[in-house]
Amino acid sequence: MSWEAEVAELRRREEMARRMGGPDKIKRQHDGGKLTVRERIDQLLDPGTFHEVGAIAGRAVYDDAGDLSDFSPTNFVFGRGRVDGRPVVVGGDDFTVRGGAADAAIWQKQVMAEQMALELRIPMIRLVDGTGGGGSVKSLEMDGRTYVPLLPGWEHAVANLSMVPVVALALGSVAGLGAARAVSSHFSVMVEGISQMFIAGPPVVARTGVDMTKEELGGSDIHIRAGAVDLAVATEAEAFAAARRFLSYLPQSVYELPARVAPQDDVNRRDETLLSVIPRDRRRVYKTREILDAVLDDGSFFEMGRMYGRSVITGLARLDGWPVAILASDPYHYGGGWTADAAHKIARFVDLAETFHLPVVHFVDIPGFLIGPEAEQAGTIRHGARALAAVYQASVPWCSVILRKAFGVAGAGHSNHTRLRYRYAWPSGDWGSLPLEGGIEAAYRADLEKAEDPAALLQQIEGRLNKVRSPFRTAEAFLVEEIIDPRDTRPLLCEFASLAAPLRKAGPSTFGYRP
Ligand SMILES: CC(=O)SCCNC(=O)CCNC(=O)[C@H](O)C(C)(C)COP(=O)(O)OP(=O)(O)OC[C@H]1O[C@@H](n2cnc3c(N)ncnc32)[C@H](O)[C@@H]1OP(=O)(O)O
């Protein structure tokens, strides 16, 4: 006697599970421009690598003879697979089964997916598409009771943030717990016009007197500007590509180091445009991303969070093949000043670099924190202090390139000066506690008030001080270590990346990622 009958029953049940919510619900999914959870997993992973766990878990109906007559699979599909040959855990909501609602979920599957990533020390990829934990509404009728909310397995989801890379792709309507799962990640993506995210959806919000569509309430444009998610893309395929690309810069877990790829670009490439990219007129702006393209390995810059805290640019890149974290000022927004949003973005990004042992290269043009009533009302200094803490606690190798301004307390966040200052300044460098513009009025206030012609005196003081603000004066006193020809930036940064590589230490960081 063999076990052939049981194996056949297993295959029958697996087949029933693969039907998901049935043809109508699958059609609704496709008509809405969305893939099913199983199609998503197939497209995300290397072909043929998905090993599903708990495939036949669900709600079964038995006939009087005790035989299975109907089966509705649980609406969470998970297992192991490979991305670019490296193992990952992937877990996705099945919207075709009661909209991914909790009443059709077996929560232990989500818990185990997170636990599997944590214990196997491999990245976690969440494909979120569901109504969240709000399924208690239907369970009232189905089970005759509701529950006191708890977040099963949340401890694993949070622990993963300081242990393995976590990517969340919000691929449909994502509410409540689903939204929390989407943003409790290192990198999150939404699909424009197809995915929406909210704490509670339109029917719930309508009870507060606000009548909005899903897109108006929680479209991707809202969340990339609010900093809740990092990227919006046009298609699900682009979301999968973004997840794969993000993971390519990172180690499998904090116990490994980010891997070098075969260098594709000349280390000694000197870009002539760098000599004139910073305008001599300090009030004029320039395009930081062009500088990044000129000095980083060709095509290697992967920006994250572009639409949020826009005075700061954050992203991953490579230098001579080594993965690095890039922090850079963008003078197009608040002159590169640190707003509350920018400070929050910096803190989260530096924590990411610290957690996964990515050396940081900081391209600095910081006039200071944003000043004025708007900044005070936003609690800028509170968020700014958190950003400074992240910079000063980071133990990863750090190199700063001062492109232009470094002023005030925020300017002091250009690097951690308690460690070896690995720092270069371009000849356009300009620094101090307060910029002369406005600073003179504050420091020479009494003199200006007494003067017969305050405007003339102001001009005179300004002329006097402008003569001594040259970066060479600072270099004379060794208060800035090296002023460089901007065209030498790439060779010097590639040298930094290779000197930094052996200094990276695998293992959990004391000051790792904080959600
Ligand atoms: C603890 C927490 O997580 S609180 C979470 C709070 N959750 C919410 O606010 C979500 C409320 N629901 C919604 O806003 C909407 O249903 C959306 C935006 C999620 C989806 O809207 P639509 O795309 O128009 O889909 P629709 O409204 O038809 O719902 C899809 C399915 O989800 C189910 N569903 C939606 N919300 C819930 C809920 N709270 N409880 C149980 N099932 C739900 C629907 O019954 C439907 O099931 P079906 O496929 O079997 O017909």
Description of the molecule:
The chain folds into two domains: 4-248, Alpha-Beta Complex (2-enoyl-CoA Hydratase, Chain A, domain 1), CATH 3.90.226; 272-436 and 470-503, Alpha-Beta Complex (2-enoyl-CoA Hydratase, Chain A, domain 1), CATH 3.90.226. The protein is 37% helix and 19% strand. It has 21 helices and 17 strands. The strands form three sheets. Strands 1, 4, 5, 6, 7, 8, 9 and 10 form an eight-stranded mixed sheet that branches. Strands 11, 12, 13, 14, 15, 16 and 17 form a seven-stranded mixed sheet that branches. It is elongated. It starts with a helix and ends in a 15-residue tail after the last helix. The mean pLDDT is 94. Bound molecules: acetyl coenzyme *A. This is Acyl-CoA carboxylase subunit beta. Keywords: Ligase. Residues 1-264 form the CoA carboxyltransferase N-terminal domain.
Topology overview:
Elements: H1 4-18, H2 23-31, H3 37-44, E1 51-53, E2 58-62, E3 68-73, E4 76-83, E5 86-93, H4 107-120, E6 124-130, H5 136-143, H6 154-161, E7 166-175, H7 177-183, E8 187-191, E9 196-198, H8 202-206, H9 214-218, H10 220-226, E10 231-233, H11 236-248, H12 288-295, E11 302-304, E12 312-319, E13 322-329, H13 340-355, E14 360-366, H14 373-377, H15 380-393, E15 398-407, H16 408-411, E16 423-425, E17 430-432, H17 436-443, H18 445-450, H19 454-468, H20 471-476, H21 489-500
Parallel strand pairs: 5-6, 6-7, 7-8, 7-9, 8-10, 13-14, 14-15, 15-16, 15-17
Antiparallel strand pairs: 1-4, 2-3, 4-5, 11-12, 12-13
The protein binds acetyl coenzyme *A (ACO).
